[in-house]
Amino acid sequence: MPICGPMSAPTATRPLPRLGRRPAAIESRPLKVVFFTTSYPRHADDFAGRFVADPVERLRARGIEVEVVHPGVYNDYGVAYNGGGIIHAIKRRPWIAPLLALSMIRALRRAAKDADFVHAQWLAGGVVALFSGKPFVVSLLGSISGGVLDDFFLMRRAPWLVRAICHRARATICISEALVASAQRCGIRNIRFIPIGIEIPEAPGIELDPTEVFYTGRLSPEKGVQDLAAAREGLNLVVSGDGPLRDLFPDALGFISRAELMERYDRAAVVVVPSRSEGFGVVCAEAMAHGKAVVAGATGGLLGLVRDGDTGLLVEPGDPQALRAAIDRLLGDKVLRDRLGHNAREWITELCGWERVIDATLETYADVTGRTDLLPERADAAVAPAAAA
């Protein structure tokens, strides 16, 4: 069964361009892939770049040799983890932009010297991969803290530039249906839809009494937290995270450990994801995996996760009144919460279970390298080609 959301059936594409015929001796050694990213966890409870680190760990468990080029491997000049995002930092210190780019390229070229190919994260990473001296795959992830390098923004405002990058790539992986649609409008070829993998708990969480409303994530404008602040009066709201709008939530917990986050999901009655822009929606998917009723902004990747009235409730982004009405509706109806949470857990398990996501990734790797030994053994493992060439 292909990995695909509730979109119409994808059309077939031509086979992805491969890296050339390989002798059997080469196929017997592990594939080496170099991931390039501008965000990566610095410790076990760091959420930065977790969506990159998680698949890396699982690919290694499948026998793939993966090296990661991330801030710290290259000199990021102190901008990668400053809380405002790389673009914000470069606006204040524009002189570092060429130095940062040169540092990234040098580090990637060194790491990729004996690699089969590079897997770049974001379109911006694809630009760096162009100079790696190796073939590359690029993943479109959506927002980079809402800056001008946001994948959605670039595909809308500079489609010619996006095509120039992606048509040099062996494959373009989109993590949401919204990104697939944007890439199709750009005329990008060889698109693959592979969502972010989500860990599915053994059992759904049990909510507390009195009921809690939970938000976790970056406290920044693109996450719509200003709308949540306007809608919060009288709510038993728990907020974790940090960012430029933290002053709107003086009682925010800040960043919490992974273990505490899982506990907060479990005890919540409603999880809110009021984003105004979202490439995928990891928080939304994680809450759904815990069997929680979610209220989400009807934007970007959230539209592929939440089916309004079936797996959650959708609201117009930027509308605090609609947000509060949806929260109140769920808080006042335990039967509805339970039904949406049950459906949400089933849907995320089907869409984002790690085995299927890694199978799809390996199938893409097999397609671009010609290494049939990488193909998953499961008969139903298939990646959905999302656009005609």
Keywords, separated by commas or semicolons:
389 residues, alpha/beta, Rossmann fold, eight-stranded mixed sheet, five-stranded parallel sheet
* Annotated CATH architecture of the largest domain: 3-Layer(aba) Sandwich
- Our Rg estimate from Cα atoms comes to 21 Å
Q: At the fourth CATH level, what is the homologous superfamily of the largest domain?
A: Glycogen Phosphorylase B
Largest sheet geometry:
8 strands, mixed
Widest β-sheet, arrangement of strands: 1-13-7-6-5-4-2-3
Q: Which CATH class of the largest domain is shown?
A: Alpha Beta
> Total strand count, please?
13
CATH topology title of the largest domain: Rossmann fold
**How many domains is the backbone divided into?**
2
The shape, in one word, is globular
Structural class: alpha/beta
Task: Give the CA-CA distance, first to last residue.
Answer: 22 Å
- Please indicate the percent range of residues in DSSP E strands (runs of 2 or more): 5-15%
Structural overview:
By secondary structure, the protein is α/β, with parallel strands linked by helices. It has two domains: 2-197 and 353-385, Glycogen Phosphorylase B (Rossmann fold, 3-Layer(aba) Sandwich); 213-351, Glycogen Phosphorylase B (Rossmann fold), CATH 3.40.50. It is 38% helix and 14% strand. It has 15 helices and 13 strands. Strands 1-13-7-6-5-4-2-3 form an eight-stranded mixed β-sheet, with helices on both faces. The chain has a five-stranded parallel β-sheet with strand order 9-8-10-11-12, with helices on both faces. Strand 10, helix 11 and strand 11 form a beta-alpha-beta unit. Helix 9 crosses helix 13. It is globular. Residues 1-16 have low confidence and may be disordered.
